[in-house]
Amino acid sequence: MGKLNAGNARRTSLRWTAAVVLGAAASIVAVAPVAAAPADVTAGDLDWGFKASFRNYVSTGNGNPPIAVADGATRNADGTFGFAALGGSYDPATGAATVHYGGTVVLSYPAHFFKITMANPTVVLNGGTGSLLADVDLEVSGGGFEPVSVDQAAIATLDASTGPQSSGTTVSWTNLTTTMTEIGAAAFAGFYGAGTVLDPASFSLTSAGTPAAPAVKVTPSTGIDPEQATIAVTGSDFNPDGAGGNGIYVAFGPKNDTDYWVNARRYKSVKWVNKNVTTPSGGQDTLNGDGTFSTTLSLAAKYTDGNGNAVDCTSVQCYVLTFAAHGSADRSQDTFTPVSFATAPGAGGSAEQEITAQVRQTGALILASAGSTVALGAVDPGGTATGTLNKVTVTDRRGTNAGWSLVGQVENFTSAAGGVIAADNLGWTPNASVVDDGLVGVPGVVTPGAVANPGTGTGLATARTLCASAAGASAGQFECGARLDLGVPASTSPGDYTATLTVTLS
Q1: What domains appear along the chain, each with residue ranges and CATH number?
Q2: Model confidence over 315-340: pLDDT tens digits?
Q3: Contact indicator for 501, 409 with CB cutoff of 8 Å
């Protein structure tokens, strides 16, 4: 096994023992019920900017131009990108959608060794979750980058739990949270790690040959009196015979993503709207045969619900919701229309304060390791033992952007019985990424070192670069790691072998 020391830390030893793991694969085949065919998508738009901080960084570079759009893609006024729908399918009953959009975006920075081409994004939704797919090509010209080319890879996840807004056959989702995936992180050169929150995405689709989705209008929907108010709610394109003909609830309150349709007691006011009501009353109203209704709800910004819980709609988003009555699992008539309240009297006005801050040049260049031991897998003579280097974090807070380099070198592996495996038989495949601090600014750039292969003159007996950041882009925090490969000569005597790998930051 190999052991990692950071800088001049004390060296110790740890032995490894052999282990064999045998695996077997099994498959499960499920048969899904037959469902109605989804409708074809005939039009729509997608607006997404990947990440504003990355666009700002690329814009300062020497690309010609740094950011370009082609094949129908457009650049929005806020710097994000627009793509037009080419086709796809949408099922309003389940919320499932697959929409293909066309266009190409090119982000290039030759001085920093990369050109990234993103094309033909696709949105895939399955209820409240989804993915954003795209063709991505990472072209490199040095700097330790590895080229990447993927087709229709899921580069980001989508949170669609708030549901869409509908108008006729057009359905739209606004400001959905997008999060980087592992394959997205690799395709974008490791500038942002998996789990990084990217720019929000907004998209729409228009479907053909399918009934219009339910729609709701709330009057007023903003500036409502926080103490007490009555609002008008009208609906269209609801199904009077849906959910067994039980109708819908029209309610006001916050939205619980998991079971908002189960317990009507959590809402300030609720109306049961159904086709069997001929004379409206305080608690119910009529759902007309053409799918329309008109009713009123009594609101207050703060209230105690039927379960005894305090609700404050000035601190959490509240909605006028519609959903199938009596706890039905039919989600095809769910809508969520946000409402907001007026500021309390006397709370207006404005004031200005000038804020100053001094940024001192007293920071340091810091190295930290996530662990001090690495256990490689057991191997027979003539084979290759593999493992993963503990993640190494480099923090550059010097304020100089002077650049840095992190190198590693290993000594010979030895056993208690006198066996030796030459240091050059250890190789690695480095990786590196920027740690996103969530702040607005130009991010640093880190590049992984070249692959070192086990063998004479190519392994880690000589100091090799694990990762590096060039002058002008080295400020920030970065994570570096590597896959380790120890080639074990066929003549090696069995035993427990130990070596010390030292990484040095300068």
Answers
A1: 39-208 (no CATH), 215-339 (2.60.40.230), 361-505 (2.60.40)
A2: 999 999 999 988 888 888 899 999 99
A3: yes
